[in-house]
Specification:
Length: 190
């Protein structure tokens, strides 16, 4: 083998080893749901209202230097919605909005994660109400005391997922745009 071929081969081996080491650096976490928060902000009759999901799980594999092997995976119990209005929550859980009897969970899993000036951005598949669409998120990741905190936001249009049928399909009463805010307190997977 000539010196040039040997140098190229050595370079490729070092590059592959470096990439493998970086991929191995992604730390694995689960969300501690008690202090974590997953909420949405909608507009009804011209006024903003907030809702939270009390039951969800989140699995996060993340390292800033190994974004190709990093992943966020969130499962949401749609029946755990709470907008601080019992009548609205009954309607939201009903067949014309979330239809939790037929669609009890929503699932978000990232496809790609990239570094941005403000933190990180990801594109992931959200499956809700039987529809799967890509939804981008922006987030920050901060290691903290052996765990980490992952917080950020996303925007989506509820009608893209069929959320809102019958009287609730019109955007005259409930706006199509919904903002999602999340703050996840992460602990290492055991």
């Amino acid at each position: 083998m000539n010196k040039f071929a040997l140098a190229v081969t050595s370079s490729l081996i070092v590059t592959a080893a470096t990439a493998a080491a970086a991929a191995a650096n992604a730390a694995s976490f689960t969300a501690d749901t008690a202090p974590s928060r997953l909420e949405f902000v909608g507009v009804q009759a011209g006024a903003e209202f907030k809702g939270v999901f009390h039951k969800f799980t989140a699995s996060v594999d993340f390292a800033a230097d190994a974004l190709a092997s990093s992943k966020i995976d969130v499962q949401i119990d749609m029946n755990s919605v709470d907008s601080l209005d019992k009548d609205r929550d009954t309607t939201i859980r009903g067949k014309d909005v979330f239809d939790v009897a037929h669609n009890p969970t929503a699932h978000y899993v990232t496809k790609t994660i990239t570094k941005t000036a403000a933190g990180f951005a990801a594109v992931g598949a959200l499956t809700m109400h039987g529809v799967t669409k890509d939804v981008p998120i922006e987030f920050q990741f901060a290691p903290a005391g052996g765990g980490a905190k992952l917080s950020g936001s996303a925007k989506l249009n509820r009608l893209d997922f069929g959320v809102g049928q019958g009287d609730w399909k019109s955007t005259d009463t409930v706006a199509d745009a919904v903002k999602i805010n999340f703050s996840l307190v992460l602990k290492p997977k055991t």
